[in-house]
Specification:
Elements: E1 5-11, H1 17-31, E2 38-44, H2 56-64, H3 81-84, E3 87-90, H4 93-106, E4 111-113, H5 133-158
Parallel strand pairs: 1-2, 1-3, 3-4
The structure holds 4-nitrophenyl phosphate.
Length: about 160
Amino acid sequence: MSEPVRVLFVCLGNICRSPSAEGVFRQVVENAGLSNQVKIDSCGTGSWHVGKAPDGRAREAAARRGIDISDLRARQFQESDLFEFDYVLVMDRQSLADIKRVQKEIGGTEPELFLDYGSPSHDEVPDPYYGGNQGFEMVLDLIQEASEGLLARLRERLA
Ligand code: 4NP
């Protein structure tokens, strides 16, 4: 079997959007029977929440869809990630700019907006941190759609 494809999701805090993406995409990949061929991780550009579990609202919203993200712990993006992942998928334009700046200096995988694989109606996953539960549902909807688009891309690559 070929080497696993390595996918990293990135947001700001790594407690709301990117751990949600990690959980949803893990489920999508599992349902496709491809868990052995795809390695998935997430991180944040900021360091405030390092070591913390996902936000309770993100955990509950994921749980309502049968996804358990409670064992994930936040970590900060590091330069070596650009050499350890084949896809670096960011949630918003700010994270894209932050990581692009690093990538231009040191090389490695070029970051992309995760929603480039999803709905044409949105390019960013809106930050739900300061909003209500509805924001977390929307995060999951956008992530689910992009996860399916990403899976289709990976199937081509793994075929
Ligand atoms: P995330 O959400 O980037 O989706 O994990 C946030 C979490 C925390 C903060 C901002 C966004 N914060 O400012 O602490």
